[in-house]
Amino acid sequence: MASLGQILSKTFFWSYERGTWQYDVAVILILLFVLATPRRWFHDKPESGEPAAPGQVQLISQEGNRQTYRVDARILAPPTKLALQNDLHTALQEALPQLRNGNFSIAKIEPLRDDQGAVIAYQVEIRH
Questions:
Q1: SS3 state of residue 81
Q2: Non-local CB neighbours of 78 within 8 Å, separated by 6+ positions
Q3: pLDDT tens by residue, 64-98
Q4: How confident is the model at residue 50 (pLDDT cuts 50, 70, 90)?
Q5: By the number of CB atoms within 10 A of the CB, which of 22, 60, 65, 104 ranks highest?
Q6: 76 and 91 Cβ atoms separated by less than 8 Å
Q7: Reduced DSSP (H G I as helix, E B as strand, rest coil) percent helix, strand, coil of the chain, to 5
Q8: pLDDT tens column, 104-115
Q9: What pLDDT is stored for residue 51 in this prediction?
Q10: Is the full-model pTM beyond 0.85?
Q11: Cβ atoms within 10 A of the Cβ of 55, count?
Q12: Dist CA 26 CA 37 (whole Å)
């Protein structure tokens, strides 16, 4: 008969063959941990910016069906290249009542930088 140390070692290093009762018990324990662990034990939250304040999204110009907005960079999560357009679309939609329906597309994005080169806002041109 195996000692408790051998059993724990084999379980920890996943040495049991698939289909054995030991393997099944290990899988059940993992599933119980994943499904029964309270959320409050984990404090990781997705990165997101602050809620948009009225002055953080400003209309700069309007020409026909094109509008250009200045969006403060602090209301966005730290951007990845692929997610920036989606984040800007969401920020505009949440900050401006006339864009809540989401029927617009982003035509152009220009980062606005401070003296040190840090992005402080984005100038966003949209089309309806």
A1: coil
A2: 47
A3: 888 888 888 777 766 665 578 888 888 888 888 88
A4: low
A5: 104
A6: yes
A7: 40, 25, 35
A8: 888 888 888 888
A9: 54
A10: no
A11: 9
A12: 16
